[in-house]
Amino acid sequence: MIILTTNYGDIEITLDHQKAPETCKNFLRYCNEGFFDNTLFHRIIDGFMIQGGGYEMRDDGFALNMAEKKTYAPIANEAYNGLKNVIGSIAMARTDAPHSATAQFFINLEDNDFLDHTGKTNYGWGYAVFGSVIAGMDVVNEIAKIATCTRFGHEDMPVSDVVIEKVTVK
């Protein structure tokens, strides 16, 4: 079990090591190294998902800026594992390239079957689900309701910071 302690409350997650072994190993590596501590949920789309795990706020002495964290190499996409992008599932975020996921993840707010694996083509790869929220979905839903805007060049950013303060692996 993993606990994401946010400034809105705790979100408890369980991982499916059997169906997404490499994705879980990758996620746990970041958790155990403290990578996610003080990172943001930087993208919120109510009725879709909340995304975090790749950016932190930094004070450069003049202003507060959002900074992308350095990650390890991308991992292979395990979206073909049979796990679905349903309410409360956690999946890896990625670019348009199927095997580009590093540290960013999202929690589904709805059943998003259009994100599921349908084939080994660029369009069909889908987004790899590797676990689910087992407690704290009320916190996830509260975060989902935060107003958003364009900040630091990013759309769908919350108007007030949503911070993963620390991560605990149990």
What does this structure look like?
The protein is mainly β and 170 residues long. The chain has a single domain, classed as Beta Barrel (Cyclophilin). 12% of the residues lie in helices and 38% in strands. The protein has 2 helices and 12 strands; from the N terminus they run ββαβββββββαβββ. The protein has helices spanning 21-32, 137-144; strands spanning 2-6, 9-15, 39-45, 49-52, 55-59, 64-68, 89-92, 105-108, 129-135, 148-151, 154-158, 163-169. An 8-stranded antiparallel barrel has the order 1-2-9-7-8-4-3-12. Strand 10 (148-151) and strand 11 (154-158) form a beta hairpin. The chain is globular.
Please state roughly what percent of the residues sit in beta strands, choosing from under 5%, 5-15%, 15-25%, 25-35%, 35-45% or over 45%: 35-45%
SS elements, strand count = 12
The H-and-E topology, N to C, reads as EEHEEEEEEEHEEE
CATH class: Mainly Beta
Which fold name is given in CATH as the topology? Cyclophilin
Low-pLDDT residue intervals, each spanning 5 or more residues: none
Mean pLDDT: 95
Q: CATH homologous superfamily name?
A: Cyclophilin-like
